[in-house]
Prior knowledge:
By secondary structure, this protein is α/β, with parallel strands linked by helices.
Amino acid sequence: SHAGAWLPVFAKIAHERNLRLMVISHLGCPPLLGTRRSDGAESGQFCARLGLAEPIVESIHQIKPAAVFLVARWSLYSDGWISDGELQKATHFVTTDARTDATEASSRAALASQLPLTVKALLSSTPRVVVFQNPPVLKGYLLPRAYADPAWVEPTAAASQSLEAFNRAVVAQLAALQGVKIFDPMPSQSAGI
C-alpha cells in the first residue's frame, strides 16, 4: 500500500523525464524474500505462504531496470499494525518459518535478516536500489475528529522516533551496500537520492 501511496509522485517524475515506470505492489504483503504473514487476516491471506516475493525478484531480474525503489511501511513488520494505541488483529507480523506463527520477535528478526538479503538480490538486477524510510505513522485513522484536533492522529517527533527506531536502523544499515541509496521523507533527515 505504501508503494501505491507514492505512485502519483513516481508517475509525475516518469512522465516529466519520459521514463517507463512499473509498479509491483500488493496490499499488506512484505516485499521481502523468504517471509510470510501468519495473522490469518483476510488482507493477509495472499501473503500467508513463503516464496511470494521470489518470482517478483526473478521478474525484476529479467527486466533489468535502471533503478528499483523499495517502499514499504517497515514498522508494520517490526512492530505490527498499531492503531489508536492497540495492536490490531491483523498484526502484519512476518516469519521466515513455514509452520510457526509470527510474533513481534520473529517479525523483527525476519525484517533484519531478509531486508538486506532482498536488497542484495535486487542489486543483481539493477545498479541502483533506493530504499524508502517510513514517514511518521499516524496514531489512528484520519477521521473527522482529527481535523478538529490533530493530536488525535499525529505523533510527536519523539514518539515517532521511538516507534520507528528499530526499522529505521535496519533500513539505515543498507546504505553501506554499494548501489544502495536511502530516501528519508523526513525533511531534516533526508539523505536525498
